[in-house]
Design the sequence.
């Protein structure tokens, strides 16, 4: 699959996730312009009980949606009868990347997406950037690490966790994108990278 096809596929998936996580009952009487004008809350607080809820509902709190790994949403607005009516509402472009492998995580209308060593918090309704954390791509990596892939974030309370192309685990403040801490898995090894979306279990 070519780079352009991969990007289109991921954007299409992001559009589907966006439509699924927005509960129709909250929006049926609100005009499109009203939704744009309202300021999104930057309050992020994913509790352990939220992560154990089955199935995933209005929010998509982890890479698979919940601990079952089924990637199933309990929302019912999208059905086999109307899925062909889905249309792109916005497109977001990340910087300096050939393809995307991220699954968007949505918390209270805020969407977290990643690409290589970048993390973005977006308004899920409009695609507007709320904050952006970035660090330089690591030069000289070899084997799989040289692809600089990243599959997303884990969220616990107001903390957002992601991995870097050179095998570091970062913790960001989900409200501002500020770096809270940085831990290396294997410092200085050019063939060590990290691509997975961190999974938070209880306090780990």
Sequence:
């Amino acid at each position: 699959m070519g780079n352009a096809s991969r990007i289109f596929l991921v954007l299409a998936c992001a559009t589907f996730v966006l439509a699924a996580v927005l509960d129709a009952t909250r929006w049926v009487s609100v005009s499109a312009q009203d939704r744009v004008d309202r300021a999104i809350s930057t309050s992020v607080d994913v509790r352990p009980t939220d992560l154990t809820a089955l199935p995933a509902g209005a929010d998509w709190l982890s890479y698979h949606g919940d601990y079952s790994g089924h990637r199933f949403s309990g929302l019912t607005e999208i059905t086999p009868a109307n899925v062909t009516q889905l249309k792109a509402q916005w497109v977001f472009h990340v910087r300096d990347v050939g393809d995307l492998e991220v699954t968007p995580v949505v918390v209270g209308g805020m969407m977290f997406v990643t690409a290589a060593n970048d993390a973005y918090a977006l308004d899920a309704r409009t695609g507007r950037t709320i904050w952006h954390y970035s660090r330089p791509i690591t030069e000289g990596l070899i084997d799989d690490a040289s692809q600089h892939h990243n599959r997303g974030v884990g969220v616990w309370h107001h903390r957002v966790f992601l991995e870097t192309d050179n095998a570091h685990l970062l913790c960001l403040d989900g409200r501002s994108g500020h770096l809270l801490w940085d831990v290396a898995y294997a410092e200085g090894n050019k063939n060590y990278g990290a691509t997975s979306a961190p999974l938070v279990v209880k306090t780990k």
